[in-house]
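Sample pair:
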Amino acid sequence: MIEESENIVKKTCRELGITQKELAEKIGVSQNTVSNWAKGEFETMHKVLLESLIYKSKFEELQAILNFGIK
């Protein structure tokens, strides 16, 4: 789980290799909304959404590694 003191928006963007603008487009919200979340103005469900994007990305990376040797 992500530590409370860590900025979830910055972590999500770093983990996914995307900008805040790209994150906003990916999840269907305005860039202003993501900017507000980066300032700490978010609810628990927003944090869960961002954490799930990180976990999904890590799962897809692992799946690609495991499937690499399978033909």
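Residues 8 and 47 are 7 Å apart (CA to CA).
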